[in-house]
């Protein structure tokens, strides 16, 4: 597990790109929850951390073509993406956001 940020330093409704064990990960805070999703759209080689976070539905939208991915499952619910992206375990430990990017895929 890797500490990627201080929880209090992450603004709710935003995504941040981090590297965990060589993997690009988009870390998202929504209120008191944190999520970690692979930082690459399954439709195109675009960083998801640059997209819009939809707090109400816990999704992140790719800025290139508008596909929205669940932060919980990684499954897209809008075209053109049809393949899911990996999601990882993200927790808050003593005020730090911790991500497990290997063998922690959901």
How would you portray this structure in words?
GO terms for molecular function: 2 iron, 2 sulfur cluster binding; metal ion binding. InterPro entries: Rieske_2Fe-2S, Rieske_2Fe-2S_sf. Residues 2-99 form the Rieske domain. This protein is an all-beta fold. The chain has a single domain, classed as Rieske [2Fe-2S] iron-sulphur domain (Rieske Iron-sulfur Protein, 3-layer Sandwich). Helices cover 0% and strands 49% of the residues. The chain contains no helices and nine strands. The protein has strands at 2-6, 14-20, 23-30, 33-38, 52-54, 59-61, 68-70, 87-93, 96-105. Strands 1-9-8-4-3-2 form a six-stranded antiparallel sheet, with no helix packed on it. Strands 5-6-7 form a three-stranded antiparallel sheet, with no helix packed on it. The relative contact order is 0.25.
Question: Which descriptors apply to this entry?
Answer:
single chain, 106 residues, mainly beta, Rieske Iron-sulfur Protein, 9 strands
Brief synopsis:
Keywords: 2Fe-2S, Iron, Iron-sulfur, Metal-binding. With 106 residues, this protein is an all-beta fold.
SSE layout and pairings?
Blueprint: E1 2-6, E2 14-20, E3 23-30, E4 33-38, E5 52-54, E6 59-61, E7 68-70, E8 87-93, E9 96-105
Antiparallel strand pairs: 1-9, 2-3, 3-4, 4-8, 5-6, 6-7, 8-9
Pfam families: Rieske (PF00355)
Keywords: 2Fe-2S, Iron, Iron-sulfur, Metal-binding
Domain Rieske: 2-99
Shape: globular
Task: Report the biggest beta sheet as strand number plus sense, adding barrel if it closes.
Answer: 6 strands, antiparallel
Q: How helix-rich are the residues, as a percent range?
A: under 10%
> What is the C-alpha radius of gyration, as a whole number of Å?
12 Å
Order of helices and strands: EEEEEEEEE
What do we call the CATH homologous superfamily?
Rieske [2Fe-2S] iron-sulphur domain
Question: What name does CATH use for the topology?
Answer: Rieske Iron-sulfur Protein
Number of strands: 9
DSSP strand (E) fraction?
over 45%
**Corresponding CATH architecture:** 3-layer Sandwich
SS-based class: mainly beta
Which residue ranges are poorly predicted, with pLDDT under 50 across at least 5 consecutive positions? Answer: none
Quickly count the helices: 0
* Mean model confidence by pLDDT: 93
Q: Largest sheet, order of strands side by side? A: 1-9-8-4-3-2
Domain module tally: 1
Ends apart, CA distance between termini: 15 Å
The CATH C-level class name = Mainly Beta
